[in-house]
Fold these 4 entries.
Entry 1:
Amino acid sequence: MKIIVTSIFVEDQDQALEFYSETLGFEKKHDVPTGEFRWITLVSPEDQKGTELLLEPNKHPAATEYQKKLFAEGIPVTMFGVADIHAEYKRLMEKGVKFTIEPTKMGENTIAVFDDTCGNLIQIIQE
């Protein structure tokens, strides 16, 4: 068994697709109409056959509440690995990304947390 898709709730699929592809650099793998919404997945350009990230609409009341509460508590919804967190932090800052936690050493790892503009906090980590 392996993880093939993981999802995050987003307030606006078009805005999320733009942020995750143009700002973060993920590549769109699927964009399929499913009625009112779309099945949009992205992959890392470094692992195009790897786990897909699904941009899931947060239109269900439980999803909206879950997303808002995590954000309010400062809890990231997922974590992305980076080779050089300081270079990635600089690159994203230059693209206007707002960080809630600057690169911070936590034991053996260094983490940072940013706002994805779609209702989520995302953590990056350099192991």
Entry 2:
Amino acid sequence: MSEKHEEKTAPTPLPKRRVGGLGRGLNALIEGSYEKKGERLVPHPANSVGLIPVEQIEANPYQPRTHFDQDALQELAESIRIQGIIQPVTVRQTGPAAYQLISGERRLQASKLAGLETIPAYIRKADDQQMLEMALIENIQRENLNAIEIALSYQRLVSECNLKQEELGDRVGKNRSTVTNYLRLLKLPPAIQIGLRDTLISMGHARALLSVEDGQQQLNLFERIVAEDMSVRRVEQLVRQGLSPAPKATPGVQPQGEQPVVPPAEIKRAERHLSDRFGSRVQVKPTAQGRGEIRIAFDSAEDMHRILNILQPA
């Protein structure tokens, strides 16, 4: 056999891969999970993992999370730039080149911020009800939802997926009493639910407030908890004692030794205003004595100097 003939029949060398595949997360492992059709890369059928263009994935209409911390999202995006995607998102296929997200909203958003064109995804078959159930359960188990988002997710599983509380507990790995405690949070007045969502109060505070039957008394105690920075134990003591009221002030006269209490709504407005002003997380922490502190978060020495420059007088 001639050398010329050997050159014609020699196998085509495989394309060179970029060194450092481990840093690219799952992309390095599943680049071969595509079928080449013309100029398009087509992932394997349902119940497989493949790389999908992020522009082909639409948001999950059943997403239980309503708020994403932008700073945490930026941190995740930076991690993805360096390490790649470690865990695939979950999608269902809705068309030839269209997918709908089931779970992994934060990873998808962060991947877009990181400039990724494709993302590893686990493709599943699911109808609308199955998708709702999977989305809610996977988010409850894997995401850091706040207490109200968890409660709303539990309520949707009960009402829209026709799950009993015992079945729900089995699905999410919680006992029935835990599920019941979360569902009870939805009986609190909206203002208190918002306070719990925004971490003005804790789950322990909310559970103590549920022991108060009168809605107005709940609201009054909620305002005292925020204004006086009460501990859960102190709130529980007040509830057991029958809600001993705070001293009533004569109109126009401030009780001796006490200063005006800043309303919770005004605190939140101040935090939002200052966060926008400094481009960082800001917390306003008042006390019952009219004092308090303002905390401005920074991510690095450079970020600290940036904030100090803003504080310098013009």
Entry 3:
Amino acid sequence: MTPHRFLLRLLVAFCAAAASLVGAAAHEVRPAYLDVREETPGVFSVLLKTPMQGDARLALSAAFSGNVVKLTPVVSRPTGDAMLQTWEVRAVEPLEGQAISIDGLQNTMTDALVRIEFLDGYVWLEKLTPGAPGATIPASQSSWTVAKTYVSSGIEHILLGFDHLLFVASLMLIVRDWRMLVKTVTAFTVAHSITLTFATLGWATLPSAPVEVMIAFSIVLVGTEIVRMERGQTSLTISWPWVVAFVFGLLHGFGFAGALVDLGLPRGDIPLALFSFNVGVELGQLMFITAILTIVAVAKRFFTIPRQAVIASAYGIGTMAAFWGVERIDAMLRVGG
């Protein structure tokens, strides 16, 4: 077997394994979310969102270290691929200074985002992990803490946003000139920064479910353009990739905004939080691009990457994105029905 033929088979096998792995692990890598909001002095509404695995949810529960009394029973409601649980509590002792934890998180592979909003507008955010399933609620949060939290959340969102990364990878397969690559990635960045800001501030909104479907099929479209280019054909995407990157970047920005809306923006620090999240998204994107370029550069030192490998990659990307699109349409129809 020739090196080129071996590389091609290896690439196809990798794409198939990646699709299977992403589909199987999707439920486990989705983070849990705990939202606690002070409605009246000392009374808080609680929402716990946990990922579903089939018909069962992850066995997670919220716990406070101080005297917190449950006022209403827990109401559970499945929604798509998650379970929503809501109830109300009264904090006999102030929440500030108490430890909050997600019991059962240590037995999973997922993280949990905790958001607590007080009547005075103070918002505390913290990411809990299986290794650190609890944290102490501070009396206040510095600007540095806000910036660090939102930068970290932005990086995590883009690096776990396989659809966004796959779109960027598709653009990199079309654009071979580094100057045009910089121009294309910049156009994508500017575009999704615009809609991320507009959607988060409520200036422009789109329903999240159709947006996720369109994001998936935007990847399919770019995947087909890779095949056309390798066949010697031309199109707007091939000739002017930065224009297409900008247009679809506007769409992807609404997808980023969904995560930021879930996080919420702390009153008094909205510009800082929004800017920090955007910075985190861009840092994560640059990390991914750097990693891909490094891998390609190292590979080229040992062998010439065959044209068939690029075409196989395009088919793998398109197949995976089409699967996501169909899956999201099915979820949207089930929720609507």
Entry 4:
Amino acid sequence: MNEPNKQNSIFKVIGASSLGTLIEWYDFYIFGSLATIIGAKLFPADAGASALINTLAIFAAGFIVRPFGALVFGRLGDLIGRKYTFLLTLVLMGGSTFLIGLIPSYETIGYAAPILVLILRLVQGLALGGEYGGAATYVAEHAPKGKRGFFTSWIQTTATLGLFLSLGIIVLSKNIIGAEAFADWGWRIPFLLSILLVGVSIYIRLKMHESPMFTKLKTEGNISKNPLKESFNNKGNFKMVLLALFGATMGQGVIWYTGQFYAQSFIENTCKIDFNDSRYILLWGIAFATPFFVVFGSWSDKVGRKWIMLIGMLLGIIFYRPIYQLFLDKSDVTTWNTSAILKENAPIVTRHALHSEGDSIITSSSRVNLINGASFNVVSIDTVYADANKMIGHAQVVKDKVLPTSTFWLFVGLVFFQILLVTMVYGPIAAFLVELFPTKIRYTSMSLPYHVGNGVFGGLVPFVATLIASFAGSTPLSGLWYPIGIAALSFIIGAVYLSNKKDENVND
């Protein structure tokens, strides 16, 4: 095959693999992007902050089972082939996502709602556990030697682009049908739409051919008879699995989920930024940073994978706390020029009975609009006795903040920097993992450390960090010690024990 045909062939492989993987990430992440709204639908109305924490726990459950999916589907991929295994994972992921969009709310079926969603999240996690390893292995086994970092980095863009797609469809749906309708039933639209995307991807993947390396192994009768045993009972191979986990994917995972998911959660739930503003910030940050996946993946072909990934971790360790402190400082409305008020809407007052004796809660909400385009809601909550109308409790909350233009773009820049670190640790990782393991057990061997590092250590970042920040005596920045600590440990192990060699074992 001549060079232009080879290039054309590899880009077809990348396109077919990437589209399916992008859709699987889209399916997996729309849940996290809508955690606040979904929590209000899955749990009682008076659940308060625990609804968000419980919803993030359900979100995290999907990550925790990803290693089991890696074992199940990794074994299948090494036994029957890459193509049909990650075709199956796509069907499971798409079906589960579609069904989440159909599940009734807590008001209709009670606690059966969160239980059913949890089950479907577990299926999603199992499916994603098999998807990534298959796609990365499939592309790497088609890529020419010396360019595996470049070609596999296109697969790496799909996780971020899947998040970008999910945020885009969420914002578009909300703006078309309105905020109230979206919070009531419109949040289901992104889940239901996924079935169309999955259908297109299945059609494309059915036309794909098996990996040439796996086909060669199958023809020669050298396929592994027991991939799990050969991956984890072999002392040398198991050592590489552990090094890949603790020296690379564990740190890469927390950098990934801090820079994208925890950043969004923090901006929305801690800084109280408006729903649309928080998502626009992330969308712009993703759009500016995504090309760097390919930049760092390609660079790793020249200088090696190790130090690019480790420097990304180190920069996160150093800069996370200053970045998130800046988020807090710049979202504090007392630092805004609130004297330049364009208008303040008349407060909307509602009164709710607290109990049968007649005590009640009075809520007063008004929107303040500033000349520079910024705005925010001021909500006052008063608890009063029925007799003598005596107040017994008062609280005031500022929320749904629309940032001043200069502050908005500062937030975009801070998110961009975090996602730039994501591209450093994530761009080279597929080539790094593929090159650690021989072909006949590659799907199994690379999938497990990847999904433990990302699914367990990384996927738990939003839940664990939010939980830590809710403890008595904690500060809004306390949750950052979790990703910082994990990244620091991974950096030390990786710096001491990982090799910076390229193209190892990939043709075995």
